[in-house]
Amino acid sequence: EDESRIIGGKPCSINQRPFQVALIKRGQILCGGSLVGAQWVLTAAHCKQPVRVLIGTDTLREGTGELRSISRLQVHPSYNPRKNDNDFMLLKLNRPVHFSSNIKKIRLATRCPTDGMRCSVSGWGTTKSPGAKLPQNLQCAAIQAFGRNECTRAYGNAITPNMFCAGVPEGGIDSCQGDSGGPLVCDGVLQGVVSWGMAVCGRRGHPGVSSNICRAVPWIRRTI
Q: Taking the complete model, does pTM exceed 0.85, yes or no?
C-alpha cells in the first residue's frame, strides 16, 4: 500500500476545477487540495510537510497562478497515521483569495456517498503506474463510488467508516501517487479527499480509497 497516493484521465482546465490547488514543496508537487473557504484548504493529513499552496492554475509551470504560504495547519483530532483513518488536514492561507472564474471554493458533501454514484477526481499525480510520469497539466478522471462491501472485499478491515472507495469496475482509471489530498467530487460537492491505495494504481478490484467528508463536516465547520 502506498500512502502518498491519475491514471487513465485526461487534461482539464482550472475553470472546470476552480477549487483545485497544488501543495508545492521545493518546487515539486507534493499533494493536491481543495479550497473550502476564502482562506482555507482541505487536504490529507499525511501530506503534513512544509508546503506552499498554488491556486488558480491548471499548470505547474513557473509564474502561473497564485502562490500562498500557510499561517496555520490543523490536523483532524482523530487522525490515525498507522491506519490512514480520518486522513484530513485544514490549511489556513496567510491571506484570503479573491474568488474569480478560476478560483472558487467548493461545497462540502453532507450526505455520505452511495454505491454507483458518479464522481470525478483530479490532480497532478503520476499518470503512469508502475513507474512515475508527472504531468505539467491538471488531469481529471471520471470514476464512481463503490459500496462498503466492494471496498471491504478489496481491503478487508483496513476500511473504516471514515473511508470509501472509488474507481471503475474494470480498473485502469484511478488516483495515484501525488494526487493525495486532492478533491473527489460527486454531484458537484466535495465528497472525498484522496487518501491511499495500492502501490500500483488502477488495478482491477483495488479502487482508490478516499477520506469520507460527510463524516468530517462538523469538525471542518468548527475549524473554519
A: yes
